[in-house]
Design a protein that fits this description.
Elements: E1 3-4, E2 7-15, E3 26-35, E4 38-44, E5 51-52, E6 55-58, E7 63-66, E8 68-70, H1 82-89, H2 94-99, H3 104-113, H4 116-131, E9 135-141, H5 148-160, E10 168-176, H6 187-204, E11 210-213, H7 222-234, E12 240-243, H8 251-257, E13 262-265, H9 271-280, E14 283-286, H10 288-293, H11 302-308, E15 312-314, H12 328-339, H13 343-349, H14 352-357, E16 375-378, H15 385-388, E17 395-400, E18 403-404
Parallel strand pairs: 1-5, 2-6, 2-7, 8-9, 9-10, 10-11, 12-13, 13-14, 14-15
Antiparallel strand pairs: 2-3, 3-4, 7-16, 16-17, 17-18
Helix pairs in contact: 4-5, 5-6, 6-7, 8-9, 12-13
Length: about 400
């Protein structure tokens, strides 16, 4: 008797991205079968058990990869900061703009004034752009409310994104993103609010899947970040960190000491930080969009990350100020061009390693039996096209939880 499934995709070329596989885990004559939204079989058609399904899709030689994953976005915000882009083109620096009341605080004002429904509606076009290029899971941060009510509002808006779209949303609490104006000159008092009120409230409503923070001279010190991490851990929330973006602070090593899921940006990461991340298994999430928009010159230490075996993920960092980017395909090209990542590293960075950066590798990120059936089906001749071409979207179909999306 054949094994009954819901869907079978046949005549496909697979890039399975399975850990330990050579390269991309390519299978030229591949087949995928799914039941109840889970992969039952993914491998060579010749090795497949006897399978049957009411829906059999002939892929006609197209490539299938895991659905793409964006592990670092700030999709929930109101307003825009195009004027700051003009200021930077005229020579103003990010820190100078922030200290003059622009930057995160500018977006904070607009976000506080918006309703939850307005924030969700504003984020949907940004999310749709990611989905149109094969994304099936997207991490979404708060961080532009900076009060208890507004941070919770932002997290609820993030959760609401999945109500009208077939996508996995991972919500991250980033209350420690900037010091709001009402706490100017007293960041420790704001950290008190984050630790004693905002984190407990988000945990009580189960609005957050993780806690994030910004460790930088214009944001928070390692000592303040430690308090945030301890508060997050007290509620069973994993942690991650914006670290070593504009200067060295030791934030990545601190995050690694807490077993952080990821440390992100990392342009100024030192060897000790790399070693600490390697020991803890903390993923290095690189954000080439921000590097490009801000015209940075300090490259993340790619060679050291490779040498230590630190997993490398890639993300858009979609945000209104420093990375107004909603394309994982362009993110891969930027990572290859600016950071010299290989095609394999880029594709793994938006699938397997992105899943690892979210703590979801047991469920998504590779084509393996038992995982959620999230697929991206591509009209390409070789996987390198997904990294190589600019302004080109070869997505043929997006499958989320076994359903065409």
């Amino acid at each position: 008797m054949p094994v009954l499934c819901d869907q079978i995709w046949r005549q496909a070329r697979l890039a399975t991205l399975t850990p330990g596989a050579a390269g991309l885990g390519v299978i030229e004559q591949g087949l995928i079968a799914a039941r109840a939204g889970r992969i039952v079989y993914a491998g060579p058609a010749s090795d497949a058990p006897d399978l049957d399904a009411p829906e059999i899709i002939d892929c006609a030689g197209r490539w299938i990869t895991p659905g793409l994953i964006d592990p670092h976005t700030h999709l929930i915000f109101a307003g825009d900061r195009a004027a700051e882009f003009e200021q930077r083109l005229a020579g103003a620096g990010y820190e100078a703009i922030a200290r003059a009341g622009g930057g995160i605080v500018s977006t904070m004002r607009a976000t506080r004034a918006a309703s939850q429904d307005e924030l969700t509606a504003a984020a949907l076009p940004r999310l749709d752009a990611l989905l149109a290029e094969g994304a099936t899971t997207v991490e979404v941060k708060s961080g532009y409310g900076l009060t208890t009510a507004d941070e919770l509002k932002s997290l609820r808006a993030a959760r609401a994104l999945s109500a009208g779209r077939k996508v996995g949303i991972v919500a991250t609490l980033l209350a420690a993103h900037a010091v709001p104006p009402e706490f100017a000159g007293d960041p420790d008092a704001y950290i008190d609010l984050v630790c004693h009120e905002i984190i407990p409230a988000a945990a009580a409503e189960r609005l957050a899947d993780a806690v994030d923070a910004f460790c930088e001279s214009i944001a928070f010190t390692p000592a303040q970040i430690r308090r945030v991490f301890e508060a997050g851990e007290a509620f069973g929330l994993p942690v991650k960190l914006h670290a070593e973006q504009l200067s060295y602070s030791g934030g990545a090593a601190l995050a690694a000491g807490f077993g952080a899921l990821s440390a992100d940006h990392l342009e100024y990461l030192d060897e000790a930080g790399v070693a600490a991340m390697a020991r803890s298994g903390t993923v290095a999430t690189l954000l080439p969009g921000a590097y490009y928009v801000m015209r940075e010159t300090q490259l993340p230490p790619i060679a050291a990350l490779r040498a230590r075996g630190v997993p490398i993920a890639l993300a858009t960092d979609c945000n209104p100020g420093t990375s107004p980017l909603t394309s994982l395909l362009l993110t891969m090209n930027l990572a290859a061009t600016l950071f010299r990542l290989t095609v394999e590293e880029c594709l793994a960075g938006v699938t397997r390693e992105a899943a690892r950066a979210l703590g979801r590798l047991d469920d998504i990120g590779t084509l393996e039996a038992g995982k959620r059936c999230d697929l991206a089906i591509w009209d390409i001749e070789r996987p390198a096209e997904l990294v190589y071409r600019l302004g080109f979207n070869p997505l043929h179909a997006r499958i989320w939880n076994g359903e065409a999306a």
